[in-house]
Amino acid sequence: MLTSTYHALTRAPRKGAPLIFAFHGTGGDEHQFFDVTHQIAPDAGVITPRGDVSEMGMARYFRRTGEGVYDMEDLAQRTARMVAFVQDHKAAHPYSALYGYGYSNGANILASVMMARPDLFDRVGLLHPLIPWSPDPVDLSDRRLLITAGRRDPICPWPLSQRLIDWAQAQGAQVTTAIHDGGHDLRQPELVALKDLLTG
User: Fold this and answer.
1) DSSP string, 123-145
2) What is the pLDDT of residues 119-147, one digit of tens each?
């Protein structure tokens, strides 16, 4: 029985393959990363939930009051709901490793889920995350974590990206990074690093 639901595209994993959750950025939807995830890892299961918060018609995973200003109470509630959603699918595929990645707003909800339940995902890819708060310590030992960023990203300032990288390393995660000199755009080296995370 599902305890939490989202509108999502789903594909079951083949035997022994991981289950990959992919989270879209603001204004994206469940289609944004579904096909590309299947292309990267053809045997993997894929689940792409659509954010259920509308910001001027654009789908997001939690509310904010301004650029980089989060409604932390709403984030906490929606993080708990997403944890339940992920747990339900994990229970349906108990023999699959659990991987997740997200871009921008999708990276932020995934990071919040990882911080709340560091035991849930085996590998996590955060593409241009913005974590403006100071996370509490958690145990990320044996967890692989990819963080990508742009040094001139106007949405995710580089000092906050560096602070998140430092925090993740301090929690024991196996951290890899893909950093470019541009802005909020995804670039080929980031996608190469993501493929290595999901298939390496």
Assistant:
1) EEEEES----S-PPP---TT-EE
2) 999 999 999 999 999 999 999 998 999 99
Instruction: Find the catalytic residue in 24, 38, 96, 153.
Output: 153
Pairing of strands 19-23, 98-103: parallel
pLDDT digit string (tens) for 14-42? Answer: 999 999 999 999 999 999 999 999 999 99
Q: Which residues contact 72 (CB under 8 A, 6 or more apart)?
A: 133
Q: What is the pLDDT of residues 78-102, one digit of tens each?
A: 999 999 999 999 999 999 999 999 9
Q: How far apart are CA 59 and CA 27, in angstroms?
A: 5
Residue (of 93, 41, 63) closest to 198 by Cα position = 41
Helix (H, G, I), strand (E, B) or coil at 10: strand
Annotated active-site residue in 74, 93, 184, 196: 184
Catalytic choice (104, 112, 128, 161):
104
The question of whether 153 is a catalytic residue gets the answer yes
